[in-house]
Design a protein that fits this description.
Largest sheet: 3 strands, antiparallel
Shape: globular
Number of domains: 1
Number of strands: 6
Distance between the termini: 26 Å
Strand content: 5-15%
Order of helices and strands: EHHHEEEHHHEEHH
Radius of gyration: 16 Å
């Protein structure tokens, strides 16, 4: 989680991203991927400062579980001080414990983005689909989240101005834009209408190009 530090731009992971999309099709089949024809709806993961923190986090986690068709999985969300944005304990299930950075207590609109990544870890774990090495595996997770309709939230969590910056995930903003554009082309979506971050919209247009 880049928080106030420099955000990497460009396409340094593009080869791994393309390999991840290919691996999804090989593991899931074309028809299974086509079943993810509708992305997570912004209204279903909306989170205001007036919402109860824990009830809201559980609601969003259930929406991610529903979207990824993991009906027998239960995601339990907690918060603690930590270096990374979030982590998940990949046990046998059906319960999976996700811990979110304490930062999200006051940045609730980005909880959906963090949970999109962590619940995708559960999904890939159940598929037994992994890439060798931590970084490549995290890129696979980001790519899968974006391509299967939940990861647009990760790009929307990217914000940068003269005073501060925030980015979630391991892909660059432009790489997220690239994967989302590939999905938009395949499914006929227009994700640019969902972005609340101007920087996310710009990154999407660059990835589309």
């Amino acid at each position: 989680m880049a928080d106030g530090g420099p955000v990497v731009h460009g396409y340094p992971h593009l080869e791994t991203v393309r390999a991840a999309i290919t691996a999804l099709y090989k593991r899931l089949s074309y028809d299974t991927i086509r079943a993810f024809d509708t992305s997570v709806d912004p209204a279903d993961v909306a989170f205001s400062d007036q919402d109860d923190l824990h009830l809201g986090a559980q609601r969003v986690a259930r929406e991610m579980v529903r979207h990824l068709r993991l009906p027998d999985a239960r995601v339990i969300v907690g918060f603690r001080e930590m270096r990374h944005a979030a982590s998940v304990e990949l046990a046998a299930g059906p319960e999976y414990f996700v811990e979110l950075n304490d930062r999200f207590r006051t940045h609730r609109r980005d909880i959906g983005a963090a949970l999109a990544h962590e619940v995708m870890h559960v999904y890939l774990h159940r598929l037994d689909l992994t890439f060798p090495g931590t970084r490549a595996n995290e890129i696979l997770t980001d790519t899968a989240a974006a391509y299967l309709g939940a990861g647009w939230l990760l790009l929307d969590a990217y914000r940068e101005d003269g005073a501060s910056s925030q980015k979630l995930g391991y892909l660059t903003p432009e790489e997220f834009g690239y994967v989302l554009a590939k999905r938009a082309s395949a499914f006929g979506e227009a994700p640019e209408t969902w972005f609340t971050s101007a920087q996310a919209y710009t990154a999407y247009t660059k990835g589309l190009a």
